[in-house]
Design a protein that fits this description.
- By secondary structure, the protein is an all-alpha fold.
- It has one domain.
- The protein has 13 helices and no strands.
- The chain is globular and about 45 Å long.
- The protein starts with a helix and ends in a 13-residue tail after the last helix.
Length: 307
Amino acid sequence: MSRHRYTLFGIAAILLWGCLMGLTRTVAEQFGPIGGAALIYSVASLFLLIVMGVPKVHQFSLRYVLIGGALFVSYEICLALALGMANSRHQALEMAVINYLWPALTVLFAVLTSRQPVSVWVYPSIALAFVGVAWTITGDQGLSFTLIADNVSTNPLTYAMAFFGAIIWAVYCNVTKIIAKGQNAIGLFFIATASVLWFQYAMSDEGPLVFTASGTLSLLLTGVVMGSGYALWNVAILRGNMLLLATLSYFTPVISTLFSSMILGVMLGASFWQGVAMVTIGSLVCWWVTRERATKKRFAVPHESAL
């Protein structure tokens, strides 16, 4: 019975992560992209300290802290700022879909660095995920490189941050499974992320933070949701049904798009949902056809998930 309970913890974490894209955008709109992100990670860090305790830095290997920490912080900042700096709420949802290229990229990088034979379905599945992203960007106007270029040109920095964020997290997934050796420094990494964001805020030209009742409530909710997601997942992966949780986690793009569109009040067209479905199916097939090798630790995705 206890295993079912921990599996439910993992399902709850996936549902919480599904809300984060929309919540992060709402906080950015009230406090600014950098200031809002710094506040979110500060609240989440405090929550994780309360729930998981103070990180025992001396127990972590220096290589894991430096390399894993740098990749984690870079990813979180790229994603948070891409969501906050998007021109509109609809564009923020596009950033979220681009972010969910990371599962397919994780498999791609693992395959490229391995000399083991892989299923013929891997590369078409990765291509499907990329086509899905392009499909969401072009909307109902049909797939066109010109349209993609035109849309990206309206805010190239945010598209670049979202895409490079997905690449960074895919690298993180492949690197940390080797250097972490079972260690989990999420709490420490969150504190580092908040610290870097506060430095960026101090160096930026964003105005002073103005706290309102609604803004503070949104901030606290977002920080607690973020921290709870990681805390619950950390327990679930140790004692829950990891095969089921891993399968369900690949449906996060659909869950995230649904919840975020509701939170942000954005109506999405059929083409956007079709693109999300392509990203989800492509990523799921990538993982599914390599899962047997994953049990042999060749293509395993680490037990830390992304937003």
